[in-house]
Structures are given as structure tokens and as C-alpha cells.
Amino acid sequence: xxxxxxxxxxxxxxxxxxxCLVCTALWAEAAQSQLADKVIRLHVLANSDSQADQALKxxxxxxxxxxxxxxxxxxxxxxxxxxxxxxxxxxxxQTAQVAIAAQGYDYSVSVRLEETWFPTRQYQDVALxxxxxxxxxxxxxxxxxxxxxxxxxxxxxxxxxxxxxxxxAGLSQQDYALIQEETPAYTFQFHVVEWWEGFKHWWxxxx
Length: 207
What we know:
The protein has helices at residues 10-36, 51-71, 78-87, 89-102, 163-168, 173-180, 184-204; strands at residues 40-45, 109-118, 121-123, 126-128, 131-140, 147-153. By secondary structure, the protein is α+β, with helices and mostly antiparallel strands. The protein has one domain (37-204). The strands form 2 sheets. It has a 4-stranded mixed β-sheet, sandwiched between helices. Helix 2 packs antiparallel against helix 4 (89-102). The longest helix has 27 residues, at 10-36. The protein is globular and about 70 Å long.
């Protein structure tokens, strides 16, 4: 009696697995890149984690937001917002310096607009997946304390954001649904992007 051996197509399974992995990576890359092209973050780093330095960070944050809000009012694209912020870096630096001095400190401060890698962070009801984003960064003193962030364009630093304001800024409802993780499907997509961007950053920093 002959024994019939069934051969399992392992090579095809492995090939299919890697094809799915590549497609997932490409989708995650495109989703994060598309989102990053539409937003600008505010990133404020405290001098240290002391209670006083953290309170100062929040005070400086409020003064900078009070300055950027009118500057970006009516702006409808991230490149336009970036150009305005770039042109006003001197003014924003002065705002931060005055705020620091008003609280009785003599810390140096650096205000710059640059692409920065961020891990996944949540602000109010919004979370952005890990990845590189353009950010207005305010570095106070040694900038070694806990940081604070939000999205200054479109203005997600406020508790209430209307769909009209998001649409005017070019952020689609799908983009917003992704960062809000509105449904289980969007939550899964969010974590796919988070995983892929985190893996890329880990690989890039290995050396």
C-alpha cells in the first residue's frame, strides 16, 4: 500500500506573507506621509522636570500659542503656514524670551521650524502615529524636561475643532478619523502606521 504525501506550498506562503508585509509597509508609509504633509506640530521642551520648570514650560506654551493663533488665522495650507512661521521665528523667539524673563528666569531659548521624529502621542481626543513631522520647536534652557505638543496647523490645540476648519486646512475626514481612531478599522490602521514608523526609526538609529 502506497503512502500519499501531501506537499505544503511553504514557498508560496512565505512569498505571500512578504508580499502582504511589503504592501502594508507601503500603505503605512503613504498614510503617515500624507498626514504629515498636512499638519504642523508645536513642540515645547522644558529645561528640566522640576515643578518650576514644567510650570514655566506651560506659561511659555501659552504665550507662543497666543502669538501663533492670529498669525495662522485664515491660512488654508501647511506650506503657507510653514512660510508664515518661518518668517516670524524672530518674533516667536522674542515672545518666548519675554515670557521666560517675566517669570524670573534667565534661560536661553531656541525657536526653530524643523522636521522631527515623534513617537505616538495623544493630545485631547487626537493621537498622531509615530513618524516625521514638521514642527515649531521651542527649546527652553537645557531642554531636558518632559515636552508638550499639539497641532498648531490646523488648529487642534483647541478643545473644539469644526469639520469646516479641518476641511479648509486640507485635512480630510478620513485623515481626522484615522488620528481620532473613530472605529476599530481606523484603530487597526493607526497601529499599523505606528508599528511601521517605529520600526523604521529603530532601524535608522541602530548605528
